[in-house]
Amino acid sequence: MLQESSKENLQVEKRHINGANYTMDITLVNTSLVSIKHGIYCANQDFYHTVLPTKNSILTYHSLQGSSLTLNHENLNVREQAAVLFQESAVPYQHIMKTNAEQKGEFVEIAVNKSYITNLFEQEKDYLEELLATHSSKLIYNLNINDLQLIQQLINHPYQGKLAEHYLNNKVEEAHLLQYHNWRHNKTHNKLKLHQKDKQALYDIKSYITKHFNKDFTIQELALKAGINQTKLKVGFKALFGTTTFKYIHDLRMQRALEMIKSRDYNIYEVAEYVGYKHSHHFSTAFKKYFGQLPTQVIV
Fold first, then answer.
1. Residue 213, Cβ neighbours under 10 Å: how many?
2. Domains in the chain, please, with CATH?
3. Which of 34, 92, 180, 256 could form a disulfide bond with 172, CB atoms 3.0-4.6 angstroms apart?
4. What is the Cα–Cα distance from 122 to 117, expressed in whole angstroms?
5. How far is CA 191 from CA 202, 205, 239, in A?
6. What is the mean pLDDT of each run of 10 residues along the chain (300 residues)?
7. Number of other CB atoms surrounding residue 252 within 10 Å
8. pTM (2 decimals)?
9. Can you tell me whether residue 113 is helix, strand or coil?
């Protein structure tokens, strides 16, 4: 979870809410540049949740589990495994919070000043215009494996004090660069022409990889399985899904490994073997490179 600190520029506050039919645990983190809110909730039915921001900001709401419906602001509904980037005002936001099938929900919010965005994307006029043209402008996108990886790095890290502040500031900048990349990818994808047969082949091979991510493949084997040539597989997969086949495999392995480690039901050797590594030390090295910490440092 987000680490607590008493340093002046890194303020952490934890809240526990007991509602009539839900419970919610919230961690608020503020640095000199960014604000991060991580919420986890459980409920046996939908419930109302009102938020009152203290200032205007550019906010990204990531719905990891469950979904959110906004009653008093147009088109801010967020489904599970999706995000919305918009200009938030210091006015009440009334939400209906929904859980997943396990009656759980989880979200992460990232807020920065408008000047943060305009400075970061100063030369990207089209992007700023689409995001900031009117007060109701917004960008809605599905969370891909890269987004989920970055969010995990944001809320699960081993750092404290000044080092934690630098780390969080850098991760939030990386998150906004990734959002910009998603926006550009969607623009490019809309222009790319793929035959329906090719698209179906790419979706089929993605499903196949998802089921067999712990096996080793060559691009030739995957192309043969998909029934398309290697070039079309590489270019089409990247265009449709925003990543390469082998990056997708690696992401699936790391995400599954993290889930297994958090469950505390497996040792490191068992996790490494399950996700396709023959040697646990190779797995530990890859895990640290991916998440910024060793498997033994993961906070449950």
1. 18
2. 11-190 (2.60.120.280), 193-297 (1.10.10.60)
3. 34
4. 8
5. 17, 22, 10
6. 56 94 96 96 94 91 94 81 91 92 95 96 91 79 88 91 95 95 74 80 94 93 92 85 86 91 92 94 92 81
7. 19
8. 0.68
9. coil
